[in-house]
Amino acid sequence: MKHYLYDLLIDKGFSVDTAKYLNMLALLIALLIVAFIIDFVTKRLLRRFSSSIAKRTKTNFDNILITNKLPRNVAHIVPLIILIEFVPQVFSDFPVVEDIIEKTLKVIAILLTLRILQSVLLSIRDYLKTLPRYKDKPIYSYIQVFMIFMWLLAIFSMFAIVTGISFWEFVTSIGAVSAIIILVFRDSILGFVASIQVTVNDMVRIGDWITFDKYGADGDVTEITLATVKVQNWDKTITTIPTYALISDSFKNWRGMSNSGGRRIKRSVILKASTIKFLTDADIVRYKKIQLVTEYLNTRSDEINTANIENDIDKSVLINGRNLTNFGVFRKYLQVYIENHSALNKDMTMMVRQLEQTTQGIPLEIYTFSKDQRWVNYEYIMGDIFDHVLAAVTYFDLGVYELNLETQSAIN
């Protein structure tokens, strides 16, 4: 049958070479059409069959297999087998082309096997992640290690197919020169492995802002290659980092901050402990004129007065009973102030907290996030907040710690 068209063309007066080429072309087109139709039909049948099975079963593992495209990858097996089987018939008159096509199809078969295996492993990973006992286990790391070995075997097999030698002969020859290869191409091999892990784990992307103290890098990633990662620092200098350093050393990627919708403000002002005091009635009346704490003082002072009266507290001595302090009222004032600040992200943490006392005084920290993440605007917002904080301190009879050089010299 394969020579039917050839004989027909010869009878029509075509030359032998022309008849061979036209016969091969016709058979190739027919084979590709058949393979395409079988692939399409097989894909549809497997998809319907797998979907039907998934609906009937209680487990969601089969659903995960479909999500990871296992049926689609398996559907390619049948047309690929057909192509491998009939290619010798199509190119029987062209042995060189036949050999190239056969080797190409075998390489494709190896790659398809890897895709099927990867779909199964990813499905296992996704399924185990749904189980409570495996949620905190590094399953994907084990899969990565296994896939690296499988890729090595696949690469060796593909080279063996292309070169025409047996797999074990190829592996043996590779082993003989592996020491030299590792020595000469050490950085490239490390970079290759690192590039795979960086890509698979999505550790760094071009455009990410990273901080890498070991290499003095603090800026945007502009280029990622097999051997190096280029970072343009904020002073416009360029820092080059070995790609393998991204997996061997610790660095900070600010992408999470960029995607969060806010940039953290975490700064404190140190207040003198000697300026903290209980509030008298006169102090409370005076502080009530500060609008951001008026409502708070009205509510809290009424609660405290009621509690002191009910417990028959002697308020002739200020320390007795419950009291307000200027430090506590100032802390509340700053909390309300940042909650009403238009440049801060209200959907993220907003907190004013008292830190542990130091030899200089008591730090009062503002912990919040600005809406604008751009560096210049961020610094302006933070400066605007603390300009206000420092100016507001005296309204609450508090003092900011400042080192007295004369006193320090006398002590020394």
Automatic annotation (TrEMBL):
Keywords: Membrane, Transmembrane, Transmembrane helix. Residues 187-255 form the Mechanosensitive ion channel MscS domain. SUPFAM superfamilies: Sm-like ribonucleoproteins. Pfam families: MS_channel_2nd. It is found in: Membrane. InterPro entries: LSM_dom_sf (IPR010920), MscS_beta-dom_sf (IPR023408), MscS_channel_2nd (IPR006685), YbdG (IPR030192). It comes from the Bacteria. Its main location: membrane. The chain crosses the membrane at residues 20-41, 74-92, 104-124, 145-168, 174-196. The keyword Transmembrane applies. The keyword Transmembrane helix applies. PANTHER family: MINICONDUCTANCE MECHANOSENSITIVE CHANNEL YBDG (PTHR30414:SF0). This is Mechanosensitive ion channel protein MscS. It comes from Winogradskyella haliclonae.
